[in-house]
Specification:
Elements (H helix, E strand, L loop, with lengths): L1 E3 L64 H4 L2 E2 L2 H6 L6 H8 L9 E3 L4 H14 L2 E5 L20 E5 L6 E5 L4 E5 L4 H9 L3 E2 L12 H7 L16 E8 L2 E4 L13 H4 L8 E8 L1 E2 L3 E10 L3 H17 L6 E6 H8 L10 E10 L5 H13 L6 H4 L3 E3 L7 H11 L1 H10 L2 E9 L2 H23 L3 E10 L2 E11 L5 H18 L15 H7 L4 H12 L20
Parallel strand pairs: 1-6, 3-5, 4-5
Antiparallel strand pairs: 2-3, 6-7, 7-11, 8-12, 9-10, 9-11, 13-15, 13-16, 14-15, 17-19, 18-19
Helix pairs in contact: 3-13, 8-10, 9-12, 14-15
Length: 562
């Protein structure tokens, strides 16, 4: 590792060799989120996930022995590896797994240790017409890592980025670091902690997702304002493609033509594998201030709209809280449960937080709370100046601490609901403030009607995840009864109705979940008439045989509206 601008320089760590291949850690769940031990199989489960030795999957359509010797050593046809790398973590993926519908597994899994092996693998797959999928942490919820069902290919190889997992360089003067694309969130933060630095990018998938995956999917992170997406934290990108390696120039900014980095940020694996990223970091925060505000009205929807006006005032004032999340009280109540002893009926809850590595934040909090008072929010923080002032962990306690803890474990709760035959899924979007009220009401109306027609009813909650001066990102959670064996098709019908309304009312098909395959048709409607051709043209340069992630981002039979 090379460290400069404050520390002694060290020799950069060499790239992983095939003798130190890292495969999937033991204990991971093949069928659900994260760790297998987190979801105990209960007698009440309608669907009980099969054990590996109980599962029959089709034999690989591609034989490892057909590969050159130097590639064979990085390939695996192990049943667990194939199952684990065959799907992401959406409701459709999990429900299909627990029902035992493993009808299209990936054929082989590759664990390359360096860029030479990656390119050699790409070239072989081009010659043999084998599709390839880049696999970071496997946390996609939009079908981006599911093998193609197209008959245009003889098989699929899923390429794990596990071995691209190092912090390579630290530049203190420029406050940036060079990271390999397969490095997972906790590993990165642990390494940065040694230098008193942090990225402060914490998507809900943080424990398992990778730096390269964040860049490839334009991930949304910890900051509710300002640096909301990974985009603004990326300084330069190195991408390995079937046509070689492309390295963007490392700069603080540039006005030279279209931004080269932007072609790769959000590319979702269709151009190549992101092997290295220069990212902007910061000193670890030492000062924090946090407060919880309650807005009440005649119903939950009006309470949320009241809180939304407060949020808009705060963000447009120039204050940039690190946390500014407005949550439907019903969502908090469902996750924390009645044991909290607090009723949030017809209430929305606003979490405000500031953080800094230098400054006391009392003035920031006082200014933000003035807007909360103006909009009728209730909190002890007003008169008693009782907001939390933390210097280290920044963790909340009480009701909101319980919600935050439940939020980070929500995927495990979703897995249990799937086993109980319930439909449990989320969707998210963003919209400008001038359209928000009508948009939000239309989305709620469509969702509730679809749930009633398809499932006989259901529950919908909502929250703001990220806030901009010109509009919010809105996140919806759906829980509904499923009809045995038809849960996936039921959700597809609901999701289609929702996406149609989102696009019709002027929103985006995704704010931070990415496009993948599930949103590809909605993305086609959302983008400008020429942009589909632009994406296809860039793909033709990087991946002329179209072996990478078929059907992701652009539909298989793409037909631009030009």
């Amino acid at each position: 590792r090379r460290v400069h601008g404050g520390f002694q320089k060290k020799k950069m760590t060499s790239t992983t060799t095939t003798s130190t291949i890292l495969r999937t850690p033991q204990g991971r769940s093949w069928w659900g989120w994260g760790w297998e031990k987190e979801v105990k199989i209960e007698p009440s489960f309608i669907y009980k996930p099969l054990k590996i030795n109980e599962i029959h999957i089709r034999s690989p359509r591609v034989n490892i022995n057909s590969f050159p010797p130097l590639l064979r050593v990085i390939l695996s046809d192990d049943k667990f590896e194939r199952l684990y790398h065959s799907r992401g973590k959406s409701f459709e993926d999990i429900m299909s797994n627990v029902q035992g519908n493993i009808n299209n597994p990936t054929d082989l899994v590759a664990f390359p240790g360096n860029e030479h092996e990656l390119i050699d693998l790409f070239h072989f797959c081009e010659k043999k017409n084998i599709s390839c999928i880049i696999f970071g942490g496997g946390t996609s919820v939009v079908g981006a890592i599911d093998p193609t069902t197209s008959n245009d290919y003889i098989g699929t190889i899923t390429i794990s980025m596990n071995n691209f997992n190092k912090l390579l360089e630290v530049d203190f003067k420029s406050m940036s670091v060079l990271v390999e694309g397969g490095m997972k969130g906790p590993d990165l933060e642990e390494e940065l902690k040694k230098y008193n630095l942090t990225l402060r990018h914490y998507p809900q998938s943080f424990e398992f997702s990778t730096v390269g995956g964040w860049v490839a999917t334009r991930a949304g992170g910890h900051f509710a304002t300002h640096h909301t997406h990974i985009d603004s934290l990326v300084q330069a990108v190195r991408i390995c493609t079937p046509r070689g390696i492309n390295q963007t120039r490392r700069l603080p900014a540039s006005g030279a033509g279209p931004d080269e980095n932007s072609h790769y940020i959000g590319s979702e694996g269709i151009y190549g594998a992101i092997t290295q990223v220069w990212i902007r970091v910061r000193p670890r925060p030492t000062h924090r201030a946090a407060a919880t505000i309650y807005f009440q009205d005649t119903n939950a929807e009006n309470a949320f709209l009241k809180g939304a006006e407060c949020v808009r005032d705060i963000v447009q004032s120039g204050l940039l809280p690190s946390n500014l999340r407005l949550i439907d009280g019903n969502e908090i109540q469902m996750q924390v449960g009645p044991k909290s002893g607090v009723s949030l009926h017809n209430t929305s809850v606003l979490l405000i937080g500031f953080e800094s590595h230098q400054h006391n934040l009392d003035n920031n909090m006082k200014n933000a709370l003035e807007y909360c008072i103006k909009h009728g929010g209730k909190s002890d923080a007003y008169t008693l100046e009782k907001w939390d002032r933390q210097t280290e962990t920044g963790e909340r306690d009480g009701l909101m601490g319980g919600w935050a803890s439940s939020f980070m474990k929500a995927a495990y709760s979703r897995d249990k609901l799937c086993c109980l035959g319930m439909i449990s899924e989320t969707f998210e979007t963003a919209i400008t403030w001038d359209k928000f009220k009508k948009f939000h009401n239309s989305v709620l109306h469509t969702t509730k009607n679809a749930l009633k027609n398809v499932c006989g009813g259901g529950n919908v909650t909502f929250r703001f995840t990220h806030i901009y001066t010109d509009g919010p990102a809105v996140y919806y959670t759906v829980i509904a009864p499923g009809k045995r064996g038809e849960e996936v098709e039921q959700w597809k019908k609901v999701k289609k109705a929702v996406l149609d309304t989102i696009i019709k009312e002027g929103g985006t098909c995704t704010h931070h979940h990415a496009v993948g395959k599930m949103h590809a048709h909605a993305f086609e409607q959302e983008r400008g008439v020429m942009f589909g051709k632009v994406i296809s043209s860039i793909k033709n340069v990087h991946d002329p045989k179209h072996i990478l992630s078929p059907g992701v981002l652009i539909c298989d039979n793409h037909n631009a509206k030009l």
